Amino acid sequence: MAICRAAPLRGLARGACALVTATDQSGPAGQKRLVIVGASGMVGGYALRYAIENPRVIRVTSVGRKTLGISHPKLTEVVHQDFTNCSSLAEMLLCQDAAVFCLGTYTGSVSDADLRKITVDYTGEFSRVLHGSSPGAAFSFLSGNGADPTGRSRMPFARYKGEAENALLAAGFPHVYIFRPAYIYSVEPRKEPNFGYRLLRAIYPAFRILFPDQVIRADDLARAMIDVVLLENEHGPVFENSDIRAMVKSLHSASAQARGST
């Protein structure tokens, strides 16, 4: 259940506690209703910001385990703690056009059992309920570089992401888009989750020049995940890091041309 409380939009990237909801809206044909899962995370936060600002989006529903501290007429926020059982979300997920799923965790931050539960079980349970409520929705999923749908990888993260991908592709959605970013660069400074991320952030200026297809900005990744479901891109269903970068470049070029024509 969502509790109403107003909070300034400038709190979007922060973790202040508040729940917001929006009244039902209608708008021009072509505008869509999106669900964003995991908007308190790095990529999910940028996805939420971009969706709220996007005129093609009429309604954004944020579903997550933490409150966001944001208020906006487009936004409905739902705090849901138990992603092993999403049945209570069924009514809220009616008539949604698309979902952008960014909920996850880092390897080493939880036990192996919890890593699989968060990566595979949470994704599968949410997609099950969403498909039951909105079978025509598109689904954009934040996977990861090296995800292995064959299940042969020695890396648990790769196996579990691959297992989640397989479940989504078999769920029955008309459009599933799987994003496999490599190193995701947080545009805004944050507390990095481990030494590897701290090191990569420190050497990012050189790393992005030497290995451009191994990096992606968090805001660019989020924008691609939103735009692909808004446009119902026929490419995919899997986008590796180089594909995401190409998509972002194309989107930036299209935006620049649109601004130049006005």
Topology:
Elements: E1 32-37, H1 42-53, E2 57-64, E3 75-79, E4 98-101, H2 112-133, E5 138-142, H3 156-169, E6 175-180, E7 183-185, H4 195-202, H5 204-210, E8 215-217, H6 218-231, E9 238-240, H7 241-261
Parallel strand pairs: 1-2, 1-4, 2-3, 4-5, 5-6, 6-9, 7-8
Helix pairs in contact: 1-6, 2-3, 6-7
Kindly list the characteristics that best describe this protein.
262 residues; alpha/beta; Rossmann fold; seven-stranded parallel beta sheet; two-stranded parallel ribbon; globular; disordered N terminus
Query: Please, how many domains?
Result: 1
Shape: globular
Under the CATH scheme, which class? Alpha Beta
Could you give the order of strands across the largest sheet? 3-2-1-4-5-6-9
Summarize the structure.
The chain is of the alpha/beta class and 262 residues long.
Structure in words:
The protein has helices at residues 42-53, 112-133, 156-169, 195-202, 204-210, 218-231, 241-261; strands spanning 32-37, 57-64, 75-79, 98-101, 138-142, 175-180, 183-185, 215-217, 238-240. The protein is an alpha/beta fold. It is built from 7 helices and 9 strands; from the N terminus they run E-H-E-E-E-H-E-H-E-E-H-H-E-H-E-H. Helix 1 (42-53) crosses helix 6 (218-231), helix 2 (112-133) runs parallel beside helix 3 (156-169) and helix 6 crosses helix 7. The protein starts with 31 loop residues before the first strand and ends with a helix.
